[in-house]
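Review form for a predicted model. The reviewer records the input and the model, then writes brief findings.
Reviewer: anonymous (R2)
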Amino acid sequence: MASSRGKHTKFIFVTGGVVSSLGKGLCAASMGALLEARGLNIGLQKLDPYLNVDPGTMNPTQHGEVFVTDDGAETDLDLGHYERFVSHRMSRHSNYTSGQIYEAVIRKERRGEYLGQTVQVIPHVTNEIRSCILAAAEGLDLLIVEIGGTVGDIESLPFLEAIRQLRLTLDPRDTVFVHLTLLPFIRTAGELKTKPTQHSVMKMREIGIQPDLLVCRSEQPISKGTRDKLALFTNVRADSVISLPDQDIIYKVPMVLRAEGLDDKICEMLNIWSREPPLEEWRRIVDTLEHPQHRVSIGIVGKYVDLAESYKSLHEALVHGGLACNAAVDIVYVDAEQIQAQGAEALLGGLGGVLVPGGFGSRGSEGKIAAIRYARERKIRTSASASACRWPSASSRATSAVLPGLTAPSSTPRSTGP
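Model under review:
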């Protein structure tokens, strides 16, 4: 497929193994940042195995926030990471779920497009997945595709089969498989264990996919001996085993991967000739976060605070606002129901600002209203979404008359920075 530069679009497929929540989205976004800094026109796509058509009606405490794209699509929160790390704007073509794929296949079957064939996962569902990937690659030099879920889950098998087929149909130097995995540290033994990663790669190879690069999450950097052992048992070159230890700031990840040579290996495998990536802006961001000139505490009063990722874009928007002012923003999550139980003074006292996002249903509404009243009466800077003030209760009607000074942000604030 031709890109805007007259070359074939190249693909990086990112999979995850051992456990969920390893940070595939951050890893994919960081790779995108490095390759975009090399001058490539890149895009990112997330394929989610769940059967929901989109995450718009999913419980935020199970799935995290819903990221709304410019064209109105309700998508996975990883697309927020993508937009914060690269300049490419996400769209409805940047996120597909199993629900959307199966819905498209069934509609085609009802319209008779399959001409009476027996509709099956292979080839019909996998062909639909491949079409979605290729459509998202139009006009790009490189598309990074993140496969949601964990290798071994039954739900993700059609997506893995689709990318296996794509590698066979494309030029051999147009695809790279990156497998993100976990090396657990057993404290009683004092060592990192490679066996879970060995088994994860084994599952990949059983379905016909050999990873080209391993990105290994761990509590500490991995040793040469560990790299050599992983290379031996996973059929991956030792210099293609990348160490990604835990980071206290997510914006360090591109620099860590750069130091490990991940972008160099990808460019070598894909036969891409490009410049060295300038990372001065990333260093400035990290330096500001580590050595701020100012510090402020902001409270987020919500009903889904048990999972901080329910408000991920709001969180990062506040962090980015602080970056622009050379300030660190300490974000305090406050359960709206606890405000009802303990009072606003006990939980909001000492904060420099209050943010009250919206939510489904009436649970926690009185606590949100109490937080808004507390902040207004003490002239604390406050921002509340429109849906945070829509409850038909006596206290909300009494409070509505004193809310005209509040600002109402969009549900998913955007940042122009990384």
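Findings: Residues 1-6, 391-418 have pLDDT under 50 and may be disordered.
Further findings: The domain at 292-400 is CATH 3.40.50.880 (Rossmann fold).
Recommendation: see findings above.
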